[in-house]
Amino acid sequence: MKTSKIPEATIIRLSVYSRFLTQVDQRGVVTISSGEIAEGVGVSPAQVRKDLAYFGEFGTRGVGYNVKDLHRHIMKILGLNTHWPVVIIGAGNLGTALSMYGGFRERGFKIVGIFDNDPQKVGYKLNGVMVYALNDLEKVMKEENVQIGIVAVPAHHAQEVANILVETGISAILNFAPKVINVPKNVEMRNVDLTVNLEILTFNLGLSKDKH
Amino acid sequence: MKTSKIPEATIIRLSVYSRFLTQVDQRGVVTISSGEIAEGVGVSPAQVRKDLAYFGEFGTRGVGYNVKDLHRHIMKILGLNTHWPVVIIGAGNLGTALSMYGGFRERGFKIVGIFDNDPQKVGYKLNGVMVYALNDLEKVMKEENVQIGIVAVPAHHAQEVANILVETGISAILNFAPKVINVPKNVEMRNVDLTVNLEILTFNLGLSKDKH
């Protein structure tokens, strides 16, 4: 895992701030204070200022932040001032669901191909996205200048698929298979653990039970 | 959002520690130090000790933690010393993918029903899980003692489905729709944002580009 001085929690909050700023901007608001951002997203004003301070000086004391400027700046920090072509490996239910997930498109991620070895799927379109054979991965990645791959295959195929992505020159992998996969240090890797979200809920259910 | 003194990041790490302890236990290890846990999961030993200290005294100075005891204790903290029946609303690709996600079962979450109003799906089984009409939600929730519901419908139906879950007496909702939904304060809510994971990757890709 790469270490940088910016905590991951800050990056996640920047993503939340930018969504909130999009809404605020659409309502025609021109300037906003850290307190208003804090209230809008449910963190403390000090946290907002601390998160933004990692990236230099923003805003004017007593006036606040210009909404459009701050939004543009955060999007640039997140690397979202550009479009990212993405490939998905696995045309099963999860791969299909991810290919049509509206949240990706909204933030500039475009699924340019789904890869699978099932001959009943290859050559057909899923929600407007072509399903290719894995053999075509290198060709599509080059043509579309793809740096990000999503692994959406069963756990027992995850490492094998990650190896293929690495050999084909991927820069970053998002792994949805509930299995740890290993990649070289120069490849960015992130495991999405869907279960941990349920565990935060059960922890909180325990807390609220204790209260009553 | 409910506020408690335990940071959410700590809960997420407890979940990671418990998975690591499961593996360590399976290898027959009896005691483990905070340093070994730290190395195994990629955080600092001080962080491990700080996270565990929220929940009282563990371990023996100079000896470390008993693996089985610590694992059992963390699972109890997370509310995972019991099985949780879960319903999924939406029998589309995402609902189907979630119903067969192996990670849920491993941690004691059991999908007891998928609910949808599509007559072509109701009455059939998906990966061994029955698809019911939404009208049957109350009956199934009572019979199976369900407290947790997963929203896996398109964004424009998410609020409507959340309202139905709330009216039926759900305690906690995990929302996969890329849309903020509102629930009463006594219902635990968690939005799963699949896009933020890609944004952490693009942020890190930007960092590594700056380095070269």
Automatic annotation (TrEMBL), chains A, B:
Residues 79-180 form the CoA-binding domain. The keyword Heme does not apply. Gene3D superfamilies: NAD(P)-binding Rossmann-like Domain, Winged helix-like DNA-binding domain superfamily/Winged helix DNA-binding domain. This is Redox-sensing transcriptional repressor Rex. Belongs to the transcriptional regulatory Rex family. Modulates transcription in response to changes in cellular NADH/NAD(+) redox state. It comes from the Bacteria. InterPro entries: CoA-bd, NAD(P)-bd_dom_sf, Rex_actinobacterial-type, Rex_DNA-bd_C_dom, Tscrpt_rep_Rex, WH-like_DNA-bd_sf, WH_DNA-bd_sf.
